[in-house]
Amino acid sequence: MLKNPMEALAWRGLVYTAFLLNFVLLCQFVLLQPLVSALGSKSGNAAELFERVSQSVKVKHYSEALDDLNAAIEADPSLSEAYFHRASILRQLCRYEESEKSYEKFLELKPRDSAAEKELSQLHQARSALDSALTLFESGDFSKALEYISKVVLVFSPACSKAKLLKVRLLIATKDYSGAISDSGYILKEDDDNLEALLLRGRAYYYLADHDVATRHYQKGLRLDPEHSELKKAYFGLKNLLKKTKSAEDNVNKGKLRVAVEEYRAALALDPNHLAHNVHLHLGLCKLLVKLGRGKDALSSCNDALDIDGELLDALVQRGEAKLLIEEWEGAVEDLKSAAQKSPQDMNIREALMRAEKALKMSKRKDWYKILGVSKTASVSEIKRAYKKLALQWHPDKNVDNREEAENKFREIAAAYEILGDEEKRTRYDRGEDLEDMGTGGGGGGFNPFGGGGQQFHFTFGDGFPGGGGGFEFHF
User: 3-state SS of the chain?
Assistant: First the structure.
């Protein structure tokens, strides 16, 4: 029994104070237990901490490892190895400023430690290489920038997200789209909500013309951030390209060829760098222009397609057709012969080649229509009138001062009339047949109004002769 109220009050105060002290101790034990278990005692159980940190790093749980090390350093600021491990992890993450401070703190506790000095040097190299790579990327020297990232930065800072994403951008810039897909895939395995990785991977699929997969990447990114400007631009840009392409193709099917030409060109203007898709746009435009008979424009579009894919058979065939339109006969034969060798069973190509070879052959013979100055649709009377006029103009007796030239001209005029003035010979000539024995001058039996062996030729022009009265007769 307490003797008085004052003693009772003092006793209760003592009990309350003891309770508070025990509560505080309990809280300290609960809150500091991770540090106690991490550090153990001064007898060396800190090794457990570093083993756990090592395991976290192996599974790429860098935040957990840094949390453990920060807690250990807070509990024991003299724990030098914790600074070293923290510096190493921060270097791998390319958090260079924080890493440098941790290395320096470690070197204060353990001066001239060779391992720390080596890693600090690697940090400086990685930071310098990353800065250089960023500068080279901005200047357009993508290959050199990629070399800095791959051979320096990611060697000393393999967990550097900034460097990994820059590498993907550089792979896309150097048109290594498969490499970009692979590298961005590794990033997304670690962080499947990484918006920039989704954008870049989608862009790589886009440039491979795998538009469905590209669209899915863009859509996933936009679900995570509907206002992401680059993702929006990529997504709606792709939709517009596909819409323009489909519209051009639909108008071709509807027979609206001139409208389709403009839509093909509009689609090509959207992204000149999208070669895997544009090669088909160039080819479609080339075919369309050949169909419209616009040989020069068609040739340009076919060349654009072949510049992207030199083995594109359809483009080679269409270029041959375009060359036929502009009467580039030898080039047409060359293209179509090459196409026939690539696809020897294709009868359409063989037919086109035969047309080209015939056109080339015909281009090398004399154009009797041109010699008489008449069109290929001229009537018999028009041909006769032209012949009479030219024969009188170039008769050797009327060209004494340039007799040799006149004889040659007169010979050509007479040969032209012999073929074009004869319905059967003209028909055969128009079909492209060889008429070497009919005045073309190609063989021993060629027509020659001046003949050999003293033979005489008579050319008589009646009342229809220009300027004519009773007519003229020339003897050779």
Answer: CCCCHHHHHHHHHHHHHHHHHHHHHHHHHHHHHHHHHHHCCCCCCHHHHHHHHHHHHHCCCHHHHHHHHHHHHHHCCCCHHHHHHHHHHHHHCCCHHHHHHHHHHHHHHCCCCHHHHHHHHHHHHHHHHHHHHHHHHHHCCHHHHHHHHHHHHHHHCCCCHHHHHHHHHHHHHCCCHHHHHHHHHHHHHHCCCCHHHHHHHHHHHHHCCCHHHHHHHHHHHHHHCCCCHHHHHHHHHHHHHHHHHHHHHHHHHCCCHHHHHHHHHHHHHHCCCCHHHHHHHHHHHHHHHHHCCCHHHHHHHHHHHHHHCCCCHHHHHHHHHHHHHCCCHHHHHHHHHHHHHHCCCCHHHHHHHHHHHHHHHHHHCCCHHHHHCCCCCCCHHHHHHHHHHHHHHCCHHHCCCCHHHHHHHHHHHHHHHHHHCCHHHHHHHHCCCCCHHHCCCCCCCCCCCCCCCCCCCEEEECCCCCCCCCCEEEEC
